[in-house]
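Hi R.,

Here's the chain you asked about this morning:
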Amino acid sequence: MATFRYTDPVLPKSATGRTAEAYAQMADDFGIAEPAPLVALTPAPELFTAAWALLRESLIAGGDDAFGSGGTTRTERELVALGVSLANRCPFCVNAHTMMLHATGDHRVAERVLRGEQPDDPDQARLLAWSRATRTPRAPELARPPFPRAHAPAHIGTALSFHFINRVASSLITESVLPCNAQRFRAVRSLGGRSLHKAVRRTSTPGDALSLIDDPQPGPSWAAGTPVGPAYAALRAAATKGAGLLDEADRTLVEATVAAWDGEHPPLAWNALPDRAERPGARLALLAALAPYRITDEDVAAWKKPPFSDHCLVHLIAFGAFTAVDRIESTLAAHHHTHHAKEAS
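And the predicted structure, written out as tokens:
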């Protein structure tokens, strides 16, 4: 099973307060009692609950007629999660959401996408292409979102949720979803999905996760009027607190580098990456933003020294991750408004 690389998480048996409430919602609504990328955030409960809230309100509760949308399907939303995970090269999340697609009953779609092929359905193919393109600000697929305005909270919310979760997973846990990497076998993927079939088919009430958030704010306009907006705003507020762990020069370097990022995966010879010995915090945050799968034990050890704790490390990783998420969100929001303004005119 996935293991935690650098932190000692709070597991359900010892959880209290809102952490325990979030775990209870996960078991009921997600069907997975301890989703490892989220569990990795438990040293910082405010990050754990906000990340769960965004995932729940977009991926899990964002369908049917929850938002008056006429209904996105769980398959569509799982395709978005899978497309983002493929773009970010997150093996754990790719395998997990392939199994979740099996759970929806769309076994052929799950296996075709995992093999690098397109879904047979052209609408699903366009949605997958859009989700994979969300990493790249200038990608042409973003100019015309392949869904109506009413579906934006579910689809954009799911995409942003997994741009964050992918980075946390790649930074803080190992790649294996199942013992001995058993998920590499199609029969195991299918069986794992079938075990989650009932949970995927359940109807979840939108907004239940907002009870985990203090002082919910409306959030971005593409999510206006839905619980996805406050969930996104809560995660943004919790994640950006990690900026305080860096001095002004390091913070400026991280933010400026991500602002200029074109969506590409950095080269192996990444000359702009700060030196581990001289600027370990900036290095960790930039890796979390743009190449979290390249974080090493040495990178963490160079920074995580007293007084820094697990809580601090999770917040620093979250800050780097969300710096990239914010960059992506600004692009998606701009295309969303431009596209739908043209539709209305």
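The mean pLDDT is 91.

Let me know if you need anything else.
M.
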